[in-house]
Structures are given as structure tokens and as C-alpha cells.
Amino acid sequence: MWIASLWRAVRCVSLAALMASPSWAAAGASDPEGVAGTGTRPGGSGLRLETRLASGFARLALDCVNREFPNKPDHVMNGDDDVRGPRNLHPAFFGCFDWHSAVHGHWMLVRLLRTLPDLPEAAEIRAALNAHLTSENILAEVAYLEGPERKSFERTYGWAWLLALARELHGWNDPDARRWSANLEPLARAIAARYLDFLPRQTYPIRTGVHANTAFGIALALDYAREVRDSTLEARLVERSTTYYLADADYPAAWEPGGEDFFSPALVEADLMRRVLPPGEFEPWLERFLPDLSRGKPPSLLEPAVVADRTDPKIVHLDGLNLSRAWCMEGIASALAPEHPARPVLEEAAARHARDALAHVASGNYGGEHWLASFAVYMLSTPPAGDR
Fold first, then answer.
1. From 68, 81, 84, 181, which residue has the greatest number of CB atoms within 10 Å?
2. How far, in Å, CA of 353 to CA of 375, rounded?
3. What is the DSSP annotation of 72-112?
């Protein structure tokens, strides 16, 4: 089976890369076979997030959630009093180079702790979450968000990951998690309100391969709305999805990838629409949207992107593209009938992308290491048909 051979390959190449990283070495991972220990539920590729591999990812996140500098703030200054450092501006999410990476770094730590409670880093993860996700810190984040000239702050990439974090904490029967969830609730409500305010006024979707991509922002928000049973938010997200994307056909996927993409605009849109449309409607929509997909075309969409320089903070985005393409392909394939001709095309392409990208999560360069592990954990631990 291709899944078994893929897993053997990924275990070798990804561990070789991770073990070369100082952060990974700090986890004490000296035995590549240690990755075959206790694992979580598999993602759609059949790969499992095993304990040793998860420890390496945890170390990458723990190394960055408390690291204030270097930092690239998305910060509008309204006066001299706003000339402040990241920790002062964002007491919960000041690390990991930028706010959104800090947020999904925290999401990753919660996901790891929830799915692998005996992880060696569990106590350190709880300490970091206890320090950052306090009521005082979160209320300061809400106050920042509501400041003047900040309507577009982190719209919608950071918004989406914040709701993913809230979703991950929601309903987890753990004393710490219940407290973190309650503390985070005011910020999650503020972000949900921003979706409801903004989306009716956004006439056109943003079809970029980076942060502002509308389909990705809606997809994670929709997962959150369904988890917490926010029917008002869910209805708005579904309405916007169909308004923006239902009529799409003959998407120019051969133009992908762009030189700094970490999303495929084509695949992230399709991954959203499989959440929105029932199977009987999704399959014909996909066939109109990507009519050559069943024939393995275009190749530029189905072959992993080439990353020429992992020290360049924009070019390294393409490693993230390979990871997000893999989870999108798995999700899209899961919504197709077993006999649909596009299903094996997507599954095999997802395997190639996963194998390529997991080898480079830990490159030794902070430009990629501060965020790629979150994408890897999302890909490895999220069943394609939906979380949990």
C-alpha cells in the first residue's frame, strides 16, 4: 500500500531534518525509530503524529511562543503612546515573529497536549499556556483589537487561527483547558463579531495564496461555528461561501504556485466548498471548477513546489504550501465517492506533498521554524472529513 511506503519514507526524511535542528535536539530525539511510539489519530494520508515527532514539533513551538524578537508587528500607531514592544502590545501572543504565528503556535501546543497528554513536554506546554492565556492577557488583546484604526488587524488569517484555538479548547474535559477556554472566550467573541461585520461588506473574495485568502479564513471559522453551535455565524459563512464561489468554473490552476504562496487558492477554495456543499452537489461543482483534475492536470498543482532558499522568509512559504496542499487534497478526496477518478489523483498527490514538506519543517532557520510545525501538525492530526 502506498500509505505504508509513504510512512516509512516520511519517518526517515522528516526525522533526519528535525534531528538537525537545535530545537529538535533539545527534545532528546536521538533514535529515529522512537517515532514509532504512541500516536494520535491519523490524518487522511494515513500518517500518524507519533510521540517522538510530536516532541520535536512541540520544542519548535515552545522555542518561539516566548521569543519576543525578532518580531514583525502588524501595528497601527495612533500616537506616541503606541510606540511599544510586542510583549507590551500583545501579552498573550507576542512571540513567534508575528501575532498570527503566535496564535497558531498556541493552537498547536493545545492540539499536541490534547491528543498526546503524556508528551514529555506536557508540563512545559501547560506552563506556557498558563502564562499566556490568562484572563488579564486576553482582555488586553481584546482592548488592542478594539483600538482605533485596527479594523483590519490580522484579517482574516489571524482571525481564523484564533477561532481554531478557541475550537480546540472548547469542550475539552480538562481543568486547565476549561480555564483557558473561558479566558479566551471574549477574544473569540470579538473575532466572530468581526466576521459578521466584515463579510457582508466584502463584495469580492480575496484569492491570494497568502494571509488574506478569504476561503481559508472562512473554512476555519466555519469549523469553529459548527463546534460551538453558533448558528448565526455558520449561516453567514455558508452564505458568503456560496455567493463567492458557487459559480466558479474552469479555475486557472495552471498559474499556481506563486513565488511566495503558502496556500493554493484553488485547493483551499475546494476544501472550503466540500464543507459547504453536500456530496451530491460538491462533486459536480469540483468537476466544473477543476475539469482536468481527474486526468492529473495541471501538473503544477499536483507536484510539490520547489523551495530554492529556505533562509528566505518568503520563499520558505512554499514549504507551507506543500503542507497545506496536502491537507486540502486529503479533505477534497474524502468528500468524493470512492470510485471518483479524481480521488486517487488527489490522494497520491497529497502523499508526495506530505513527504516533501515534512522533510523541511525544521531547517535550522527561524523564518520557517517559527510557523511550519503548526502546518505539519494540522496536516498530520486533522482527519480530512473534519476534526474530532
1. 181
2. 13
3. -------SGGG---HHHH-SSS--SSSHHHHHHHHHHHHHH
Q: How far is CA 96 from CA 267, 301, 317, in A?
A: 27, 30, 15
What is the C-alpha separation between 126 and 132, in angstroms, rounded? 10
CA-to-CA separations, 227 to 65, 175, 177, 219, 290, in angstroms, rounded: 26, 19, 16, 12, 30
Distance (Å, rounded) from C-alpha 183 to C-alpha 135?
5
Which tens digit of pLDDT belongs to each residue from 288-323?
A: 999 999 999 999 999 999 999 999 999 999 999 999
Whether the bond between 252 and the residue before it is cis, its omega within 30 degrees of 0, is no
Phi-psi category of residue 97: left, alpha or beta, with phi > 0 → left and psi -120 to 50 → alpha: left
Q: 50 pairs with which residues across the strands?
A: 39
Classify 27 as helix, strand or coil.
coil
Give CA–CA dist 319/94, Å, rounded.
Answer: 24
Burial 237-248 (b: 16+ CB within 10 A, else e): bbebbeebbeeb
* Residue given cell 522528516 in the structure block: 14
159 in Cβ contact with 195 (< 8 Å)? yes
Q: Reduced to 3 states, what is the DSSP secondary structure of residue 373?
A: helix
**Dist. CA 258–CA 360, nearest whole Å:** 19
| Cα R_g (the chain), whole angstroms | 20
Q: At what angle do helices 175-198 and 122-132 cross, to 10 degrees?
A: 50
pTM value? 0.90
Residue 207 C-alpha cell reads as 484569492
In the chain, where are the structural domains located?
A: 2-74+84-381
Instruction: Report which of residues 360 and 34 the model is more confident about.
Output: 360
Q: Which three cell numbers stand for residue 173?
A: 474535559
Alpha carbon distance, N-terminus to C-terminus of the chain: 26
- Please report the pLDDT score of residue 279 as a whole number: 87
Residues 6+ apart with CB under 8 A from 10: 47, 354, 355, 358, 359
